[in-house]
Each structure stands twice: as structure tokens, then as C-alpha cells.
Amino acid sequence: MTENTARAEDAAGSRDNASSAGASPALQKAEAEAAELKDRLLRTLAEMENLRKRTEREVADTRQYGVAGFARDLLGVADNMRRALDAVSPELRSSAEAGFKALIDGVELTERELVKALEKNGVHQFSPRGEKFDPNVHQAMFEVPNASVPAGSVVEVVAPGYMIGERVLRPAMVGVSKGGPRTAPSSRSVNDNAARDS
Fold it and tell me: What pLDDT score was predicted for residue 193?
């Protein structure tokens, strides 16, 4: 039976090829239009799939980075709360009366809640003390002469930096060491300098 089926299919295929070879111009035109329509359909389906993927990425980015403007506005509040808490010395805290201690505790609690709310929305604080200065995530405010650490290291953090997802919301404001041993330049910066010199 299988052999008969194979013979029948071969015969039908050869009849189709023979009829296509001697097909009328109208049939050939219809087949060309069908092939063109099939190509357009496949292209449209591919474009729709690309549009769907791009829309999904944009929606995900909007979810992750949509709060960036609001979060950036709150960073000043977080900085001021930290400055207020840092202004109270440990001696003053230990000798303060109950009302003042309650005020300090309230400000600390508010600061913790603010940091939690920022983290819940994808905003994370970073403090780069001891790291190599990176202009992509740090903003140099001043240089500190310090021969004990490599030049270009972050030795003081004036204000911490904040990231939202993989993006910098605010660079860390830092003091950078100068005068210490030089760190080995990366191969890219060596190549850039050589290109500049030539």
C-alpha cells in the first residue's frame, strides 16, 4: 500500500509540474500575486512581533524608570535628614532630655522609611569610598592630597549616589585622592593617549 501511495503522489506531482509549465498567463499571474501576498503577510507578522517585543521593553522601562523624576526630587530630602542627624553629636544625644531624644528617634525613623520607599521603587543608594574614581557614577568635588592611597581613589563621600535599576539617578559627590602612587592605566586609556600623541 505504501508503494502504491508513493506512486500516486509522484504521478500527481508530475501532473502539477506539467500543468504549471503549460499554465495559462492568468494562472501564472494569480500564483505570482499569491506569492507576493504571502511574502507581505510574513513581513507584516514579523513587524508585529517586533512591535510587540519593543512595546514590552518600553512598558518594562516605564515601570522601572517612571519614578525617576519624583525620586530625584526626594533625594534632597533624604540628604537633609542625614545632615540633621549627623549634626547631633553622640555626646549631645546621650545627655539630651527625653523630648529631644524622641525628636531624633522620629527623624531617624522617617529617614529609614524614606530609604525603604525609595528601595521599594528600585532606587538604591551607593557610597563609593575606597573605589577607583569613575566619572560615569561619581562627581569629583575636590582633590585630597593623600600619599597613602593611589591617586584617583575616592577618599571622601560628600553625598552618596543613587541608582535606579541600571541607570545613575544621581552620581556620588566625592573627594578624590591625588599625590599617591598612580594606578595602572587601562589598556583603552593607553591606546587613547597614544592616538592623541601621534
Answer: 44
